[in-house]
């Protein structure tokens, strides 16, 4: 992996994780509002869904950011993002909701790249220099 690839993969992980970390912090700051939003989406067990959201948005996103078990973290975030797209952005006749749904699928695409190729540079799971990359 050359210098450009190390930096670009690191920046990609930062950008992918940032939206989840910021959203997780917002949820910590307003647990009642977040659980009400979950209930309004008719999801079961809002307190449990809230806890899962915090684990994903703060825990898995931080793991992705630092490159710790990044492929597993990316997979968990991708599943979460797909579920939230279906639960919260399912009115595709509304142009704003369509864009939000497509934003989620775009994020999933970035996460799939991490799953396929690993965390890249500046991660806790650095690829040994002699390992082949495709």
Task: Itemize the secondary structure elements and their pairings.
Elements: H1 3-29, H2 31-40, H3 46-66, H4 70-88, H5 95-117
- The helix-and-strand class reads mainly alpha
Number of domains: 1
Number of strands: 0
Which stretches are poorly predicted, pLDDT < 50 over at least 5 residues? none
Average pLDDT confidence is 93
Number of helices: 5
Q: How large, in whole angstroms, is the Cα Rg? A: 16 Å
**Major beta-sheet overview:** none
Helix proportion range: over 70%
- Succession of helices and strands: HHHHH
Q: Alpha-carbon distance between the termini?
A: 10 Å
CA-based shape: globular
Beta-strand share of residues? under 5%
Overview of the structural elements:
The protein is built from five helices and no strands. Helix 4 (70-88) packs antiparallel against helix 5. The chain has one domain (3-117). It is globular and about 50 Å long. The protein has helices spanning 3-29, 31-40, 46-66, 70-88, 95-117. The protein has 134 residues and is an all-alpha fold.
Descriptive keywords:
globular, about 0% strand, about 75% helix, mainly alpha, about 130 residues, 5 helices
Summarize the structure.
By secondary structure, the chain is mostly helical.
């Amino acid at each position: 992996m050359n210098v450009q690839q190390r930096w670009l993969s690191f920046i990609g992980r930062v950008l992918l994780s940032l939206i989840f970390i910021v959203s997780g912090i917002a949820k910590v700051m307003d647990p009642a509002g977040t659980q009400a939003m979950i209930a309004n989406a008719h999801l079961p067990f809002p307190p449990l869904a809230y806890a899962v959201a915090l684990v994903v948005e703060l825990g898995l996103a931080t793991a992705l950011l630092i490159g710790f078990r990044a492929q597993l973290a990316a997979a968990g975030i991708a599943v979460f993002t797909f579920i939230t797209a279906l639960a919260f952005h399912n009115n595709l006749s509304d142009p704003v909701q369509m864009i939000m749904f497509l934003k989620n699928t775009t994020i999933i695409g970035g996460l799939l790249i991490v799953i396929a190729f690993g965390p890249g540079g500046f991660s806790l799971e650095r690829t040994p220099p002699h390992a082949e990359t495709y």
